[in-house]
Amino acid sequence: MQPAAQHAAARSLVPFSLEHTCGLTAVSASLAGTDDDSACRLVFTMSGDVSGIKRAPRAPISQGKDLWRTTCFELFCAPDGGEAYWEFNFAPSGQWDAFHFSAERRLEKRLSFLRVTESVFRQDGSTATFAVTFDLGAALGFLPTKAKIGLTAVIEAKGGAKSFWARTHRRDQPDFHDRRSFITPWPGGREPR
After folding, report:
1. Which of 155-159, 162-166, 176-180 comes out lowest in average pLDDT?
2. Most buried residue, 15, 101, 162, 170, by most Cβ within 10 Å?
3. Is the pLDDT score of 10 beyond 90?
Protein backbone atom coordinates (compact mmCIF):
# COMPACT_ATOMS: atom_id res chain seq x y z
CA MET A 1 0.00 0.00 0.00
CA GLN A 2 1.32 3.43 -0.96
CA PRO A 3 1.69 6.19 1.65
CA ALA A 4 -1.14 8.70 1.66
CA ALA A 5 -0.31 11.83 -0.31
CA GLN A 6 -1.05 15.21 1.15
CA HIS A 7 -3.34 17.40 -0.96
CA ALA A 8 -1.58 19.36 -3.70
CA ALA A 9 -3.12 21.65 -6.29
CA ALA A 10 -2.60 20.58 -9.88
CA ARG A 11 -0.70 23.12 -11.94
CA SER A 12 -1.51 23.55 -15.64
CA LEU A 13 1.35 23.07 -18.05
CA VAL A 14 1.49 24.75 -21.45
CA PRO A 15 2.89 23.32 -24.67
CA PHE A 16 5.92 24.98 -26.21
CA SER A 17 3.98 25.13 -29.49
CA LEU A 18 0.21 25.07 -29.89
CA GLU A 19 0.79 23.42 -33.27
CA HIS A 20 2.64 20.48 -31.67
CA THR A 21 0.60 19.06 -28.80
CA CYS A 22 0.60 15.40 -29.92
CA GLY A 23 -3.20 15.47 -29.77
CA LEU A 24 -3.34 16.54 -26.14
CA THR A 25 -5.64 19.35 -25.05
CA ALA A 26 -4.34 19.72 -21.48
CA VAL A 27 -1.53 18.56 -19.21
CA SER A 28 -1.35 19.27 -15.49
CA ALA A 29 1.03 18.25 -12.72
CA SER A 30 1.07 18.20 -8.94
CA LEU A 31 3.70 17.46 -6.31
CA ALA A 32 2.79 16.58 -2.73
CA GLY A 33 4.46 15.24 0.37
CA THR A 34 3.35 11.90 1.80
CA ASP A 35 3.08 10.39 5.26
CA ASP A 36 6.22 8.34 4.54
CA ASP A 37 9.22 10.29 5.85
CA SER A 38 10.64 12.35 3.00
CA ALA A 39 8.73 10.80 0.11
CA CYS A 40 6.90 12.85 -2.50
CA ARG A 41 4.16 11.96 -4.95
CA LEU A 42 4.29 13.48 -8.42
CA VAL A 43 1.17 13.18 -10.60
CA PHE A 44 0.74 14.21 -14.25
CA THR A 45 -2.70 14.19 -15.89
CA MET A 46 -3.16 14.40 -19.65
CA SER A 47 -6.37 14.99 -21.61
CA GLY A 48 -7.11 14.60 -25.31
CA ASP A 49 -5.99 11.85 -27.68
CA VAL A 50 -4.08 9.96 -25.00
CA SER A 51 -4.25 6.74 -27.04
CA GLY A 52 -1.64 8.31 -29.34
CA ILE A 53 1.00 8.66 -26.62
CA LYS A 54 4.10 6.56 -27.30
CA ARG A 55 5.48 4.80 -24.26
CA ALA A 56 7.94 2.01 -23.71
CA PRO A 57 6.63 -1.35 -22.45
CA ARG A 58 6.27 -1.72 -18.70
CA ALA A 59 9.48 -2.78 -16.93
CA PRO A 60 10.53 -3.22 -13.31
CA ILE A 61 11.22 0.06 -11.50
CA SER A 62 14.89 0.72 -12.24
CA GLN A 63 17.32 3.38 -13.38
CA GLY A 64 17.24 4.07 -17.11
CA LYS A 65 19.16 6.29 -19.47
CA ASP A 66 18.18 9.04 -21.93
CA LEU A 67 14.55 8.88 -20.80
CA TRP A 68 13.93 12.41 -22.09
CA ARG A 69 14.27 11.16 -25.68
CA THR A 70 10.66 9.89 -25.56
CA THR A 71 7.64 10.30 -23.27
CA CYS A 72 9.05 11.38 -19.93
CA PHE A 73 7.79 13.29 -16.89
CA GLU A 74 10.22 15.54 -15.07
CA LEU A 75 10.75 17.42 -11.85
CA PHE A 76 13.41 20.11 -11.46
CA CYS A 77 14.16 21.21 -7.91
CA ALA A 78 16.21 24.35 -7.19
CA PRO A 79 16.69 25.19 -3.49
CA ASP A 80 16.73 28.91 -2.74
CA GLY A 81 20.08 30.61 -2.39
CA GLY A 82 22.27 29.12 -5.09
CA GLU A 83 22.67 27.97 -8.67
CA ALA A 84 22.52 24.22 -7.99
CA TYR A 85 19.47 22.16 -8.94
CA TRP A 86 18.37 18.56 -9.39
CA GLU A 87 16.55 16.93 -12.29
CA PHE A 88 14.39 13.81 -11.90
CA ASN A 89 13.10 11.96 -15.00
CA PHE A 90 10.36 9.34 -14.86
CA ALA A 91 9.16 7.19 -17.74
CA PRO A 92 5.78 5.42 -17.94
CA SER A 93 7.77 2.17 -18.28
CA GLY A 94 8.84 2.41 -14.62
CA GLN A 95 12.35 3.64 -15.32
CA TRP A 96 13.82 6.74 -13.65
CA ASP A 97 16.98 8.82 -13.85
CA ALA A 98 18.27 11.70 -11.72
CA PHE A 99 20.99 14.33 -11.95
CA HIS A 100 22.61 17.04 -9.84
CA PHE A 101 23.70 20.23 -11.62
CA SER A 102 25.98 22.82 -9.99
CA ALA A 103 24.64 25.50 -12.39
CA GLU A 104 22.54 25.61 -15.55
CA ARG A 105 23.40 22.49 -17.58
CA ARG A 106 26.66 22.04 -15.63
CA LEU A 107 26.31 18.37 -14.66
CA GLU A 108 27.83 17.64 -11.27
CA LYS A 109 26.82 13.98 -11.09
CA ARG A 110 24.26 11.39 -12.10
CA LEU A 111 22.55 9.99 -9.04
CA SER A 112 22.92 6.22 -8.76
CA PHE A 113 20.09 5.53 -6.34
CA LEU A 114 16.51 6.71 -5.98
CA ARG A 115 13.93 4.90 -3.88
CA VAL A 116 10.82 4.77 -6.10
CA THR A 117 7.91 2.97 -4.47
CA GLU A 118 5.23 3.67 -7.09
CA SER A 119 5.30 4.26 -10.84
CA VAL A 120 1.94 3.83 -12.53
CA PHE A 121 0.55 4.93 -15.92
CA ARG A 122 -3.23 4.63 -16.34
CA GLN A 123 -5.38 5.43 -19.33
CA ASP A 124 -9.15 5.84 -19.18
CA GLY A 125 -10.89 7.12 -22.30
CA SER A 126 -9.54 10.58 -23.11
CA THR A 127 -7.57 10.92 -19.87
CA ALA A 128 -4.24 9.42 -18.83
CA THR A 129 -2.49 9.72 -15.47
CA PHE A 130 1.09 9.04 -14.51
CA ALA A 131 1.90 8.86 -10.79
CA VAL A 132 5.27 8.28 -9.17
CA THR A 133 6.16 8.21 -5.46
CA PHE A 134 9.83 8.59 -4.58
CA ASP A 135 12.07 9.55 -1.67
CA LEU A 136 13.19 13.05 -2.57
CA GLY A 137 14.83 13.75 0.79
CA ALA A 138 17.06 10.67 0.61
CA ALA A 139 18.07 11.48 -2.97
CA LEU A 140 19.07 15.06 -2.13
CA GLY A 141 20.41 14.38 1.35
CA PHE A 142 18.14 17.14 2.68
CA LEU A 143 14.60 18.44 2.24
CA PRO A 144 14.27 21.55 0.08
CA THR A 145 11.59 23.28 2.14
CA LYS A 146 12.39 26.56 0.38
CA ALA A 147 12.74 25.82 -3.29
CA LYS A 148 11.33 26.49 -6.71
CA ILE A 149 10.37 23.57 -8.86
CA GLY A 150 9.90 22.97 -12.55
CA LEU A 151 7.18 20.55 -13.59
CA THR A 152 7.71 19.40 -17.18
CA ALA A 153 6.78 16.68 -19.65
CA VAL A 154 8.06 15.44 -22.97
CA ILE A 155 5.25 13.70 -24.81
CA GLU A 156 6.03 11.65 -27.89
CA ALA A 157 3.24 10.56 -30.22
CA LYS A 158 3.27 7.09 -31.74
CA GLY A 159 4.11 8.74 -35.09
CA GLY A 160 7.28 10.27 -33.62
CA ALA A 161 6.18 13.90 -33.14
CA LYS A 162 7.08 15.42 -29.76
CA SER A 163 5.52 18.09 -27.61
CA PHE A 164 7.18 19.86 -24.69
CA TRP A 165 5.07 20.95 -21.72
CA ALA A 166 6.06 23.21 -18.81
CA ARG A 167 4.54 25.87 -16.54
CA THR A 168 6.18 28.48 -18.80
CA HIS A 169 8.63 28.66 -21.69
CA ARG A 170 11.13 31.53 -21.73
CA ARG A 171 13.40 30.74 -24.69
CA ASP A 172 13.10 30.32 -28.46
CA GLN A 173 13.50 26.54 -28.11
CA PRO A 174 12.14 24.19 -25.42
CA ASP A 175 14.58 24.34 -22.51
CA PHE A 176 13.48 22.84 -19.21
CA HIS A 177 16.83 23.78 -17.60
CA ASP A 178 16.06 27.51 -17.82
CA ARG A 179 15.70 28.49 -14.15
CA ARG A 180 13.21 31.19 -15.09
CA SER A 181 10.79 28.33 -15.72
CA PHE A 182 11.16 26.99 -12.15
CA ILE A 183 8.17 29.05 -11.08
CA THR A 184 6.25 26.62 -8.91
CA PRO A 185 6.88 27.15 -5.19
CA TRP A 186 7.50 24.16 -2.97
CA PRO A 187 4.06 22.67 -2.14
CA GLY A 188 2.24 24.55 0.61
CA GLY A 189 0.80 22.94 3.69
CA ARG A 190 2.62 20.02 5.22
CA GLU A 191 5.97 19.45 3.60
CA PRO A 192 7.78 16.12 3.62
CA ARG A 193 9.49 15.37 6.94
Report:
1. 176-180
2. 15
3. no
